[in-house]
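<tokenise_the_fold>
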Amino acid sequence: MIFVLSHLTKGDAAYTLLQVAVNDLIILVAFAPIVEFLLGIGNIKIPLETLILSTILFDVIPLLLGFLIRNIKLRKKLAYFEGIFLKKFDLFTIIELLLTLVIFFISKEVKY
């Protein structure tokens, strides 16, 4: 979603990539301890193992799958990867972005 927003606003792709990469590395290392600390402040108990598992399921596995798919496709045909494979996801990325924004704003509580 970040790359789609960056592309739509004609942002610097290299800078966006750097920001996302640094953010992902921080999440891989610091997410579970930070969430455990913040939940501990509110006396909410969630096992550290659950937080680590969620980090693996939602960050590590998609990162590895993306890396593997990209490398396999690049070895076979760079032109296919850039011209056909990525274009298959154009509509999906726009729909996903719009749905994310709609869900985000619908879920906000309105206070009068």
Observations:
- The first helix runs from residue 2 to 8.
- Residues 29 and 95 are 31 Å apart (CA to CA).
